[in-house]
From TrEMBL:
It comes from Corynebacterium callunae DSM 20147. Pfam families: Alpha-amylase, DUF3459. The active site is at 249 (nucleophile), 286 (proton donor). This is Malto-oligosyltrehalose trehalohydrolase. SUPFAM superfamilies: (Trans)glycosidases, E set domains. Residues 84-455 form the Glycosyl hydrolase family 13 catalytic domain. Substrate binds at residues 247-252, 311-315, 381-386. Keywords: Carbohydrate metabolism, Cytoplasm, Glycosidase, Hydrolase.
């Protein structure tokens, strides 16, 4: 890690460390905290790395664990980046999470060229749609050129193929000028398998497995520096890159047993930078624990995060509309279950989860925790890409069913998130893909995935091979809309506009009114009431009044509404 005066690296494991800089080798000295330094002043564009001596031999030159740029990939030299940038977002005051509309996207497949610049070119489109915040899937470097991003190995750097650190700053600057916040999805629970050399420097992991990689060392010996590595990465994104928020991947996989949780420490970093800049910084957790303590205040014994993803509402809605009730959808699939999740956030709030075979979750204090702290969605990268074929809901559902699901999400008081392409019913898949530099690792990844889905009854020959470039290219969005897709896009735009105009995002959970029958549901919120039919036959619901919007042609009277199959109506409350 270079600073303004010298090069340094934390390396408690090797007996000796040397700096290789622009083809020359320099000796380094170690201090009592196991930081090695070289009295060489960094210059912008310097190419450098470190050679480690383990007592018997020297390693090849390794990239800096705190590298900010890897122009030639994760196995090659790091490049020192001048942190300065000519920002034009001085008028940006930020966006608080409540009332935000998030849009999750993968940089490599969102646009034809798969770069940050490709996202910049779509900012006007996203603003027209009603999006107020981008959530970028991980942009940290990984082995190869194609990856979802959850195999990142250098947590302070930006993937060169997307445009590197300068490209990310240009995107953030342009987004802020367009009135759109930018969130980064970051992975602090494991390192990727390709190009991870950090363990040769120090104990960045502690043994054991998360299922994706070794457990990150945030509790064991020398874990203070590993925690600092994470906290400094977050501080860098907020301060140097003007990032508005972080989505923390799978926090339930963190071995987080300290008196001060790493999540609480991250919350303190976000609060500190919010206070010093006046621009709000937010943290969103992904967790399958159904534990509202994540979003409870630190004063109340919680971790102080701003929001968490809510899979239970997704599962309830997906299972009800699609009819899929296998695996973790097994406890879902009825209107009653959907109504419960809309009212209480979690289906599993301390009761039995048949999928897990045990009690699961904890109730949400609806009188204490605002609805905005729970992020809801009709699908995500996981819920699409972790299917055998990477097929989107829009590839299996009618336009009416797609828009019905969107209406449920956008008329609820929770913070909504779209997954790229759903707003026009994309017909391209979003499959799992990677391009590890080790052919054997590619083979094992492909075979393991096909073996997993074969146990579920899929023909392995039909499952896309993740290492093939064709799998990646097939996952790119097609921006040429059919007439049907244009109609879906207009419906999404209208729903997001009404969400704002009717105050659907303003009501707290105590003011939310949910009623239902066997096949219908009513949700009164803000100044509107949504009525929905989840069946293949028309249904009459006992609510009427003035019709504000519908995707179909319901029959509305003063006291009742007759809804066609798989349809909804928004009524004046």
């Amino acid at each position: 890690m270079p600073n303004s005066s010298h090069y340094a690296v934390w390396a408690p494991l090797p007996e000796d460390v040397r700096l290789r800089l622009n083809g020359e080798v320099h000796a380094m000295t170690k201090d009592e905290d196991n930081w090695w330094t070289a009295a060489v002043k960094p210059q912008a564009g310097d190419r450098y790395g470190f050679k480690l001596f383990d007592g018997s031999s020297w390693s090849k030159t390794l990239p800096d664990p705190r590298s900010q740029h890897q122009p030639d990939g994760v196995h090659e030299l790091s490049q020192w980046e001048d942190p300065s940038f000519t920002w034009s977002d001085e008028d940006w005051t930020g966006r608080i999470l409540p009332a935000s509309v998030l849009y999750e996207l993968h940089v490599g497949t969102f646009s034809p060229d798969g770069t940050f610049e490709g996202v910049v070119e779509k900012l006007s489109y996203l603003r027209t749609l009603g999006v107020t915040a981008l959530e970028l899937m991980p942009v940290q470097p990984f082995g190869g050129n194609r990856n979802w991003g959850y195999d990142g190995v250098l947590w302070h750097a930006v993937h060169a193929g997307y445009g590197g650190p300068q490209g990310l700053k240009k995107l953030v600057d342009a987004a802020h000028r367009a009135g759109i916040a930018v969130y980064l999805d970051v992975v602090y629970n494991h390192f990727g398998p390709d190009g991870n050399y950090n363990g040769q420097f120090g104990p960045y992991t502690s043994g054991g497995s998360t299922g994706w990689g070794d457990v990150v060392n945030i509790n064991g010996h020398d874990s203070d520096e590993v925690r600092t590595y994470i906290l400094d990465a977050a501080r860098q994104w907020f301060s140097e890159f003007h990032i508005d928020g972080l989505r923390l991947d799978a926090v339930h996989s963190l071995d987080d047993r300290g008196a001060y949780s790493i999540l609480e420490q991250l919350s303190m970093v976000a609060s500190e930078i919010t206070a010093t800049t006046g621009v709000p910084r937010s943290l969103i957790a992904e967790s399958d624990l159904n534990d509202p303590r994540l979003v409870s205040s630190r004063e109340a014994g919680g971790f102080g995060l701003n929001a968490q993803w809510v899979d239970d509402i997704h599962h309830a809605l997906h299972a009800l509309v699609s009819g899929e009730t296998h695996g973790y959808f097994s406890d879902f699939g009825s209107v009653t279950t959907l109504a419960k999740t809309l009212e209480e956030v979690f289906e599993h709030s301390g009761g039995l989860s048949t999928f897990r075979g045990r009690s699961h979750g904890r109730p949400v204090r609806r009188d204490v925790i605002p609805a905005s702290r729970f992020v809801t969605y009709t699908t995500t990268h996981d819920q699409t890409g972790n299917r055998a074929m990477g097929d989107r809901p829009s590839m299996n559902l009618t336009p009416e069913q797609q828009v019905l699901k969107a209406a449920i999400i956008y008329c609820s008081p929770y913070t909504p998130m779209l997954f790229m392409g759903e707003e026009f019913g994309a017909t391209t898949p979003f499959a799992f893909f990677c391009s590890h530099t080790d052919p054997e690792l590619n083979r094992l990844t492909s075979e393991g995935r096909k073996r997993e889905f074969a146990r579920m009854g899929w023909d392995p020959a039909e499952i896309p091979s993740p290492e093939l470039e064709s799998t990646f290219l097939a996952s790119k969005l097609n921006w040429e809309f059919s007439a049907e897709q244009q109609r879906i896009f207009e419906a999404y735009t209208q729903l997001l506009r009404l969400r704002k105009e009717l105050g659907f995002s303003q009501s707290d959970l105590l003011n939310l009114e949910v009623d239902h029958g066997d096949s219908w549901l009513s949700m009164a919120n803000g100044e509107g009431r949504l009525v929905a039919n989840f069946s293949t036959e028309p249904v009459e619901v006992p609510f009427g009044g003035r019709l504000i919007y519908s995707f179909t042609a319901p029959q509305v009277t003063a006291t009742t509404t007759t809804l066609p199959a798989w349809s909804f109506a928004i009524l004046e409350r």
